[in-house]
Amino acid sequence: MRYKPNQQKLLRWIALFLVGTFLQLLFYIPTPVLSQNSNSCSNITAPLTPEEQTYARGAWQYFVKNYQPATGFTNSTGGYPSGTLWDMGNYLMALNAARWLNLTDQADFDTRINKFLTTLNSLKLFEDTLPNKVYNAANAQMVDYGNNPLERGIGWSALDVGRILAAFDVIRTCHPQYNDWLKGIVAKWQVARSLKDGQLFGATVLPDNKTLLVQEGRLGYEEYGARGYELWGFSAPKAISLEPFKLVEINGVQIPVDTRDFKSTNANNYVVSESYILDGIEFGLQGELADFAARVLDVQKRRFDTTGQLTAVTEDNIDRAPYFLYNTVYANGANWATITDANQPYPQFRSISTKAAFGWRYLFPDNAYAQKVFDVVKDLRSPDDSGYYAGIYEESKQPNKALTGNTNGLILEILYYKAKGNHPLISSSSASVSTGKPSENASPETPSNQGNSPVTPPTANQPNSTATPTDTPKIVEVAVAPIPPVDSPQSSNLKLDRPLTLIERRYAEAAWRYFQANYHSKNGLIDDRSDFKGATLWGLGDYLAALHAARSLDIITPKEFDQRTRHLLAALTKLPLFGKELPGRGYDTRSLQSVDYGGNPIAEGNGWSALDLGRILAALYNLKTCHPEYTTAVDKIVLDWSYLRVVREGILSSATVTKEQDGRSLTRVNPETRLGYEEYAARAFQLWGFNVEHSAVGGEYQTALVEGVKVPIQRRRPDTNSKVNQYTVSNPFLLYALEFGLDPQMRSLFEPIFQAQAERYRRTGNLTASATTLIDRKPYTVHSTITGKGEPWVALADNGQIVPKGRLVSTAVAFAYHALLPENKYSQELLQGTTDLYNPLAGFYEGFYETTGKTAVGFTNSTNSMILQSLLYKVMNQQPLIRPTVNMKSPWWQEVSKGDSGRGLPNTTRQQTKLISDSSGSYWISGSEKTPLVTGTKVTE
């Protein structure tokens, strides 16, 4: 069940949210292994010579003179207050080098980086996704390349993101005190949006103001950028791979060239020096890249041998129009082309690049040609001590007097590399080696739309209440020891019809990330949502179901499954029971104490939810069936509970606590009536032998006409005066279908709910996957209904108020519908629209807003659990996930057989539901002794 925001603390929460939501997220994101020990950063094994110290001081002066104190940024070119993310990465690398080369002291370093990170963290992002391509360095405003302010921005560059991610890794390694800050910044950015099909994608704004995602990177830079992503857990295997490339003979040397040229892709396939130099000094040239770099240097020597013209080509700013050129070995079919980004030729401005000459000199210190070209530029500093010039024009032999952070930053980085004994700045084990064949591992793809919101069922008073952060004091986390190792641990007896595909495995691994990122290792619990340390019994049922799915899909090892399972079972025994009867509605995942929906401790608890109990009972039953070695431990837990008041006269009931005017707390027990959730929970109770025939699916249902389809809105129930159902959403029906199958009565409810959403899509073109979801702002929980309060397609808050433009398309719902209806065209459309809405460090987002396509930041247990269950359902040949037990002599059934125990146990020693199979498939039904029982896939009497 969800927690509802504590209204009394709402203002404080909003303030906290605005300041800290992304910083909160980082505590739930697994920290990638730092690339090296910070002590190695100060390990200067080859101190700079006096001459080299002069080079370093000269380069550092550029950053001293181009520093913007209001933002902490530096100008990308001398005196011009503009900068890209690539330029910012250059500055961070320069600043780190300056510190360890003793060009600046620790106090100045800290002042500079604190200001830099403060501004960077507060940058306005392009479409709230990633940093804009360029900012005004003086005031941090989004601008275009002419430094003109733009409210929206002009897009993002994935290569620039890769550059700064590499710089972030160096800073967090060499200065670990900034690690958490950097993690928070990366968590705030939707980095996964810049990945698609294993490649890097930038964003650009078209003339019609639409955003277009464009693949970025060609051989050399593509691999370098992807390595930066990989340092933070974002895999881009196609970008890491060297292919597609061909070898082109230039001056007698076979040069690797990307086959994607300007004519076919509108992007240049230039071969330049800088990408190989960066890869070498930062990651260490390995494998084929080492060979490619040597070829690129050799061909420049061959040109000198043939023409007498010293050659060191790469991209550079120049001191005249068109101001930026690519001096290349090869580009778009032409050798030694000098072009603009638009492929316009400017051969008259080809130059010897200062940074390229420095790079080759220190990357290949024994190469005579590298020394020769270096000697020409090593003293090419401005006379006013403003840094190194960009180079020397080949034709005029005059200096290219452009002063840039790129040139001077790279010189500092190169000299630091030399001082470290030519040791790469980033450990080679931190990134993959590029090969000539594409990696088989998939990667996060670009979400075209994003959004997120958790999907858990309603509580007794507050349907689908959601835990929301409050300003509670620091709580010490309670340690719980796992239950003792079980006898003869076994592998799951679940039989899969086929293995996961590579893409399916990628999705499963991404979903499991949530349970890695939000795991409390001291007590074994999982948070219901990533920004709140709270759990419900429903959420723990989600976790147990996800744990089973992850093991069945071989996403986790048997050892991890056993350790986590034993830890969770132990934690369940430690949760305080409401009224010494049943687990309560919510718990703090640190203290294990009962809390209300605002996360505030309530010593006596606030009731129990029959729906939550149903969720955990279903998960525990399946654990016993598929992993019978845990049977005794599971039965011990459920036998500690009292069911006298939760099952009454065949109806499920929940308890709530109300405060009277005189201060007394009174407990009230009322029937559950919420559509879909009641039916799901009832089926779970039937697994354990409880007679809940009046809550199980069946009888007559009231309907409403939506998109020409009769959609169920509530059960016709004259026997109760309880509050009527307020809305219809997909979540509970999907969970029921995945776990219990679609019996004829449930199918009659399930099909019109799906059909109405498909019809809306056909009518409006709006993808529709209606669910209860979490959003990152008031009202925090939104029910994107099929029908609610008598109106179709309204978004409702918990209090029944309409939320304008609040509808979300649920990722979990899309996955589940596709698992259940794989041949349906609409379910296929849903899957295509949502499959890549995930952060590879934190799990799947909830979905995206229908009106804007934007993401609501946050991650939840329920969404990621349903995705894992959907993937498991696919490879089980669409068999119900809940499998029947064959052990009717377990401790539970032995206690039931003893008769009245005073705990409200079932009256008979048999299940009230059975798994059967017919022409429409397999499904659980309310059973009698004459009903055939399905075991595996065979029907037995």
Gist of the model:
The protein has 26 helices and 42 strands.
List unreliable stretches of 5+ residues.
1-38, 437-473, 928-941
Q: Could you say which structural class the secondary elements and strand pairing correspond to? A: alpha+beta
Assess the beta-strand content as a share of residues.
15-25%
Counting DSSP H or I runs of 4 or more residues, the number of helices is: 26
Mean pLDDT: 86
Helix content: 25-40%
Descriptive account of the structure:
This protein is of the alpha+beta class. It is 36% helix and 16% strand. It contains 26 helices and 42 strands. Strands 5, 6, 7 and 8 form a four-stranded antiparallel beta sheet that branches. β36 (838-839) and β37 (843-844) form a beta hairpin. α2 packs antiparallel against α14 and α21 packs parallel to α23 (811-820). The longest helix is centred in the first third of the chain and has 21 residues, at 287-307. It is elongated, with a radius of gyration of 31 Å.
Q: What is the secondary structure topology, with strand pairs?
A:
Layout: H1 10-26, H2 50-65, E1 82-83, H3 85-100, H4 106-122, E2 125-126, E3 130-131, E4 135-136, E5 155-156, H5 158-174, H6 179-188, E6 195-196, E7 199-205, E8 211-215, H7 221-230, H8 237-240, E9 245-250, E10 253-258, H9 262-265, H10 274-282, H11 287-307, E11 315-317, E12 324-327, E13 330-331, E14 334-335, E15 338-339, E16 351-353, H12 354-363, H13 368-377, E17 389-393, E18 399-403, H14 405-419, H15 502-517, E19 534-535, H16 537-552, H17 558-574, E20 577-578, E21 582-583, E22 587-588, E23 607-608, H18 610-626, H19 631-639, E24 647-648, E25 651-659, E26 665-671, H20 677-687, E27 701-706, E28 709-715, E29 727-728, H21 731-740, H22 744-764, E30 772-774, E31 781-784, E32 787-788, E33 791-792, E34 795-796, E35 808-810, H23 811-820, H24 825-834, E36 838-839, E37 843-844, E38 847-849, H25 861-875, H26 891-897, E39 913-918, E40 921-926, E41 933-935, E42 938-940
Antiparallel strand pairs: 1-4, 2-3, 5-7, 6-7, 7-8, 9-10, 11-12, 12-15, 13-14, 16-17, 17-18, 19-22, 20-21, 23-25, 24-25, 25-26, 27-28, 29-32, 30-31, 31-34, 32-33, 35-38, 36-37, 39-40, 41-42
